[in-house]
Amino acid sequence: MSFDIGDGIDSAVNYILDNFSPALDLTAASIGFLTGGLQSGLLSIPMSVGIAIFALLALWRVSFSFAVFAGLSLALVGQMGLWAAMMETLSLVIASTVIAMIVGLPLGVAMARRDSVAAVIRPTLDLMQTMPAFVYLIPAAMFFGLGAVPGTIATVIFSMPPVVRLTNLGIRQVDVEFVEAGNAFGCTPTQLLLKVQLPNAMPSIMAGINQTIMLSLSMVVIASMIGAGGLGNTVLTGIQRLDVGTGFEGGLAVVILAVILDRLTQSLGKKRAIWRLPFVKLAVREPEAKTV
Amino acid sequence: MAFTTEHENGSSERSPKIRLKNVYKIFGDYPEDGLKLLRSGKGKADIHRETGCSIGVTNASFDIKTGEIFVIMGLSGSGKSTLLRLLNRLIEPTSGSIEIDGQDITTMSRKALIELRRRDISMVFQSFALLPNRNVVNNAAFGLEVAGVGEVERKAKAMAALKAVGLEGYSESRPDELSGGMKQRVGLARALAGEPSILLMDEAFSALDPLIRTEMQDELVRLQSERSRTIVFVSHDLDEAMRIGDRICIMQNGNVVQVGTPDEIVGSPANDYIRSFFRNVDVSQVFKAGDVARRNQITIIERQGVSAAAALEQMKSRDREFAIIVGRDMKYHGMVSQASLMEKIRSKAEDPYRKAFLADAAPILASEQLSGVLGQVAASAWPVPVVDDQHRYIGAISKSVLLETLDRAN
User: Fold this and answer.
1) In chain A, where are the structural domains located?
2) Which listed residue, of B17, B96, B145, B153, carries a Cα 20 to 30 Å from B6's Cα?
3) Are the C-beta atoms of residues A65 and A263 closer than 8 Å to each other?
C-alpha cells in the first residue's frame, strides 16, 4: 500500500483555494492594510528626521556611543541610496513582529498553562523553524499573490517560534512561591496571569520578541523572492546580476538595521533605562538598605 | 500562657476555628491506590514501591481554636508545610474534611474557595514571595487589589498595615531594596491588610538572622495582642514553637504525633521522637557541643591595623568581660578579656592585641558530645568557644547556657 503525501498537500492547497478564498482575501486585505500603512507612514518621514529619531532612541535606551554609531551608520545607508528600501524592510519586520506577538503570546500562555497544549504546539514550532522557507513561500504566494502580504506571512511563520517558546518558558519559570502567593490571596486564573505570571516573565518574553525580530530580518531576503520588496530586493538584484557591490551594500544595510533593532529591543527587557551621557556619571543604585 | 486546656476537651470551651478530620494527602499519579494501601497498614516504602505515591499527611485530626497561635512543628519532610497548605487548599487533600467556621472547604467550589482566600485566610511565606515588580505599598495591597477593593481604600488599608509592622516610611521602596527582616514585615503587612481571621505562616521567620527572628516573633505576639486572629505557624525550630505557640502540633513522617500546649508536650511527650526534642534521659549524650553553642558573645574581626583600644572600647560599651577574636573567614583566632587587653595596652607591648590572647582558652570541636566537655565548660572561667572542623567559630558555651540545657533535660 502506498500513498503520496505530496499529492495530498497539493489537493489540500487547491481545496483551500477553491473554498476559502473570501477568508484568504480578508486576511490578505487586513495584513496588506497593516504593512501598507506602516510602509507609507515610515516612508513619509524624511531621512534626516528618521536618522535623528533612531539616534535619540539609541541615546535614551542604550548609550551615547551607540547613538553616534546609529546616526553614522544610518547616514551611510542613506549615502548608499538604500534608505527607502530599509524603511520598507523595517515596515515588513514591524508588521510581522506585531502579528507574531498577537498570535504567539496567547499560544505561549496556553502552552504554559496546559502540558497537553504544549505537547501539541512544541512539534509544530519545530516544524515551522526547520521546514525550508522556500517550501511555504510557494503556497503563500498561491494564497495571497505576490507582494508584501505573502512576504509578511512567510516571515511570521519563520519568526514566531521564539516568542511562543520564551513566553511559555518565562511563565513556567516564575518562582513557585510567587504563584502560591497569588493563589493564596485569592487570584482568579486570569488575575494570576496578569498580575503575577506575565510581569515576572517579562524579561524572558522580551528576549523572545527580540529573537523574533532578528529572525524576521533574516527572512527578508528570502521573502523578496515573492516580491516583498525592501533591502531583500537589493540583495536579490545583486545576486541575479552577479553584481557583488550592490549585493554587499544591501547586505550591509540589513546588518546595520539588525544591530540597531537588536540593541533597542534588548534594552526594553531591562528594568530601568537611564540617560547615559559621557562625562556624566549617575549614581546607579543605592546600596542595599540594612536593618540591625 | 493563654490556653492551657487540653485539646481533647478544648472544643467544649471554645468553638474550633479550623477542624481537621481524618485528613490524608498522598502525592502521586494514583493517590487513591496509595490511600487504600496506607489504610490497609502498609509502610511508606512499600507504598512508594508499589504505586509510586509518596505520603504527605496521614490521618490528621485536630482542632485549631479561635484566636490561638497554633504551631505545627516537625523536621523537614515531616509534612508540616503540606499540612499548612491543605488549610487553604493550595494543596488539595486526598481524603478527609477540613472545616473552617463549620464549613467544609474540601467540597467548596473554586469560586467559593477564591472568596474564602480573599476574605478569611492569608499567608506569609518563608522566602517572602514579594512581587518584585511592585513597590512595598502595592505589595501590601495585593490581596485587596485582587479582591477588587478600590484604589483609595486599599492604599489606606495597606498603609495602615505597613504602619502596624513599622514600615510606613518605606511604602515607595522596591522589595529588592529592603533587608530580609523588612521584606518579611512587608509579607506580614500584606497578610494583615485584608484583616483576615486566619493567618497561615510557613516557616515565616526561618530565613532571617537569629536576632531579627526573635524581634519578628515578638512583633507577631504584639500584633496578636492588639487584635486577635487565628494563626497557624509552621516551624522546625523548637525555641520558636515554645516562644510563640499557644499550642503545638508535632509531626513526624506525615503523622500528627502530639497536639498540646508547650507545657503538656514538655511534661508528657507522646513518644521518643518528641522526647528527643524536649526530654532526653541525658541531654548531654544527645546534644553535641555545636547544638548548644550560642552566638551571643562579642566577636571582633581581626584586621590589619586593628586597634586593641578599639576592641576594649567595644567590650566596655557592651559590658562584656570577654570577646572572641576571629579572622575575616570566621576562623577562630583567640579570646581576650578586658583585663588581659588592658594589661598589654598599659605595658605598651608590641602587638598588644595578639599578646592579650588568653593562653588556655582552647576551643572545643562542635562535633564533640556535650557530655565529653561538661568538665571543661564547668571549670572554665569564661565561655568556652566552639569551632567546626574547619576551625571556624560557631559560638560559645557559657556556664549558664550549659545549666539551662541540662535543666531542660531533667
Assistant:
1) 20-269
2) B96
3) no
Domain B289-409 has CATH 3.40.50.1820: no
For chain B, the domains span: 7-120+196-279, 289-409
pLDDT of B281 higher than 60:
no
Virtual CA dihedral for B248, B76, B390, B308, nearest 10 degrees? -40
CB atoms within 10 A of CB A282: 9
- Nearest-Cα distance to chain B for A65, in Å, is 30
User: What is the separation, in whole angstroms, between the first and last Cα of chain A?
Assistant: 80
Residues pairing with B369 in the sheet: B288
Instruction: Give me the total of CB pairs closer than 8 Å, taking one residue from chain A and one from chain B.
Output: 76
In our burial notation (b when 16+ CB lie closer than 10 A, e otherwise), range B278-306 reads bbbeebbebbbbbebbbeebbebeeeeee
Say if CB B332 and CB B392 are below 8 A apart. Answer: yes
What pLDDT score does A111 carry? 94
Ranges of residues in chain A with a pLDDT under 70 are 1-2, 269-292
pLDDT band at B296 (very low <50, low <70, confident <90, very high): confident
Residue A225's CB is within 10 A of a number of other CB atoms, namely 18
Pick the CATH number of A20-269 from 3.30.310.50, 3.50.4.10, 2.40.160.60, 1.10.3720.10: 1.10.3720.10
Distance CA B326, CA B402 (A): 23
B-chain residues within 8 Å CB-CB of A286?
177
pLDDT tens digits, B206-254: 888 888 888 888 888 888 888 889 999 999 888 788 888 899 999 988 8
Residue type (1 letter), A266: Q
Name the strands in the sheet holding B384-387, side by side, starting at the edge strand that comes first in the sequence: B364-365, B384-387, B393-397
Residue B118's closest chain A neighbor by CA?
A186
Please compute Rg for chain B using Cα positions: 25
B-chain residues near A194 (CB < 8 A): none
Please state, in angstroms and rounded to a whole number, the distance separating the CA atoms of residues B148 and A125. 38
Tell me which chain A residue has its CA closest to the CA of residue B215.
Answer: A292
Q: Which helix (H) or strand (E) holds B81?
A: helix B80-87
